[in-house]
Amino acid sequence: MTETPRNATGGSSPVRIVLADDQTLVRAAFAMLIASAEDMTVVGEAATGREAVALARATRADLVVMDIRMPDLDGIEATRHIAAEEDLAGVKVLVLTTYDTDEHVVEALRAGASGFLVKDTRPAELLDAIRTVAAGDALLSPGPTARLIARVLRAPAPDVPGTPYPEALAALSARERQVLALVGRGLNNTEIAEALALSPLTAKTHVSRIMGKLSVRDRAQLVIVAYESALITPGGAPA
């Protein structure tokens, strides 16, 4: 486990990132790429999930780029630990996977990850993904993410403690249910605004209120809620 000092950049504070991957060369490549961006910096590198959790806590990181398959504690369990710790409430997790059909991604999203990215993505897309997830404005690659979840959640979801089910939606207004369904289909705030003839700011406000009412961390969790509450069908249509 290595800790990297914070880079000095002008303007606003850079996004503080922990890289968690058991392959040294992969971490080195990502670290070099991130070093090329002025608005982010690597503050730590971990070879196991347990090290990732410890570094997220020690470095006060903003985001963990998390591989799923790691020794000691895998990326899913590490994500669950981060999501469960009150002191790490502001830490986002961006999951890395070899294939976008990896059903473990859904487990990671249920555990609290904010999005996922395939490892062979283009460098510029990785940097954009980090910015998107760190800002919390939208779910990363919402279309592919929603399709992945739809494939995996064709069977009834297990009764996971803390998972919102239909009764939890009673707190939502009719409009908020509409917005939640569109989030589940992978639409961003601008697309939701267009679909419902709202302003983007109003759409964003609705999303924020829904997250508050359902006590979820971010949009990734809303996608899970939309499917597991049967608000929309696995095909993406309203139930």
Helix and strand composition category:
alpha/beta
Low-confidence stretches: 4-10, 160-164
What form results from the Cα inertia axes? Answer: globular
CATH architecture of the largest domain: 3-Layer(aba) Sandwich
How would you sum up the major sheet? 6 strands, mixed
Proportion of β residues? Answer: 5-15%
* CATH-defined fold name of the largest domain: Rossmann fold
Counting DSSP H or I runs of 4 or more residues, the number of helices is 10
The radius of gyration is: 17 Å
- Give the full name of the CATH homologous superfamily of the largest domain: Response regulator
Helix % is 40-55%
- Average the pLDDT over all residues and give the rounded result: 81
Main sheet: strand order: 1-3-2-4-5-6
For the termini, the CA-CA separation is 47 Å
Based on DSSP secondary structure assignment, what is the total number of beta strands? 6
Which class of the largest domain in CATH terms? Answer: Alpha Beta
Number of domains: 2
Q: Summarize the helix and strand pattern as letters.
A: EEHEHEHEHEHHHHHH
Question: How would you portray this structure in words?
Answer:
With 239 residues, the chain is α/β, with parallel strands linked by helices. It has 2 domains: 2-136, Response regulator (Rossmann fold), CATH 3.40.50.2300; 166-228, Arc Repressor Mutant, subunit A (Orthogonal Bundle). The protein has helices at residues 24-35, 49-59, 75-84, 104-111, 123-135, 142-152, 174-184, 189-196, 200-214, 219-228; strands at 2-3, 15-20, 40-46, 63-67, 92-97, 115-118. The protein is globular, with a radius of gyration of 17 Å. It starts with a strand and ends in an 11-residue tail after the last helix. 46% of the residues are buried.
